[in-house]
Amino acid sequence: MSLAIVNSRALVGVEAPSVTVEAHLANGLPALTLVGLPETAVKESKDRVRSAILNCGFEFPARRITLNLAPADLPKDGGRFDLAIALGILAASGQLPASSLESLECLGELALSGTVRPVQGVLAAALAARTCGRTLVVPKENAEEACLASGLQVLAVEHLLQLAAHCAGTAPIQPYQPQGLTRLSEPYPDLADVQGQQAAKRALLIAAAGAHNLLLSGPPGTGKTLLASRLPGLLPPLEEQEALEVAAIHSLASNIPLDRWPQRPFRQPHHSASGPALVGGGSKPRPGEITLAHMGVLFLDELPEFDRKVLEVLREPLESGQIVIARAHDKVRFPARFQLVAAMNPCPCGYLGDPGGRCRCTTEQIQRYRSKLSGPLLDRIDLHLTVARETTTLNHQPDALDSSTRGAARVAAARQRQYSRQGCANAFLDLDGLRQHCLLGSSDQLWLENACERMGLSLRAAHRILKVSRTLADLEGVASIQRGHLAEALQYRPGSTQPD
User: Fold this and answer.
1) Which domains does the chain have, with CATH numbers?
2) What region holds the AAA+ ATPase domain (predicted)?
């Protein structure tokens, strides 16, 4: 047979579209032509494949070979197609039965010796292959990652000869059995380790219960970073589908930390990070920190020290839960449904309002420092809290009443009420959801409207007050929002002063 077809997968963002590798042999002068919008690494695969085939003892056809990677308008890059190209040439030249390739999808880069090397983004391909009902062939180093997609048959190969023997039927490869790697986890830091700061712990609990964004402001050493690192321990465990989404994203950037793959990510980029580092980018778009924090927490310490242009790129993802990176030939969409926690000092020196009078910052310096944060960005943060300095106590003993286990149970109960009622966390309610699930009595509605007018709050801020109030009601287990919930939610807006 002079024509063979092998299935493979490309990688575009977090998706793995199907790619059909077609190999055709024709009479004429020996040549190999590769078409289908291949990039440099793919074009170089013909040399890797030729050497691998010869070093494995097969015959490289001395004919005119045409390789087509379809669809032709989809860019292909990397060495992930090497294995499929080699199998296509061997099948087209009659050295392997073409019928044995119909139910397979192949990924892997070939060394010149025929050894199969690992590739990135295998989990996204595994999820797509599972949907299509095909068996996935991957390098042995990627087998554990591929097996995270439960119900998928995975063949782990180390050498081209091993796969060739399987296709020929002489030495079938048994489906790979994962090494007992299911849902492992490491404990998060415990909230009980934080000394005092009851108001901050309360805000952290509210943020976790409703998936709200949180800004902590206070002098150095008050525990802002310590508090932020405790938030993941309060959040509900990831569902299997959510865990797979997180793992697929991290598969694009680097190897998945398989010992922690079901856990919610906690990302803490340095304040010198650039815009592309935060949102993703590059000639071949890669996920940034906000995507790597998907389903988890993005912690921005020293918030005003970030470049203002960098912070402004957070505005759209905070609303939409995704980021779209546009290039001349394509658009790549990355998920970015993260929970933002930020920390900052009240002034450049950090000691504004300190009883000891250590602050020497001028009004102009303080204004310049705070103006690095735009109003639209601050408006998208639901909870603003000032963290005061606690009395020094060196022999602090953790309090079981403040433990993450106890807080996580309350958060789980509140989240369960939200998902049963509306199918999402309160922070993600749209306008229709607000009208249905955040109803107020006429007197309470008038009270809130007057409060927003006196405080000069935007309509977006008013909606976020309603969402926080709904979360407070869920934490108490009551069906309707009460005046006390509205009053507490108002206290978490900057410069809040409640009406009479």
Assistant:
1) 3-168 (3.30.230.10), 191-424 (3.40.50.300), 429-500 (no CATH)
2) 210-391
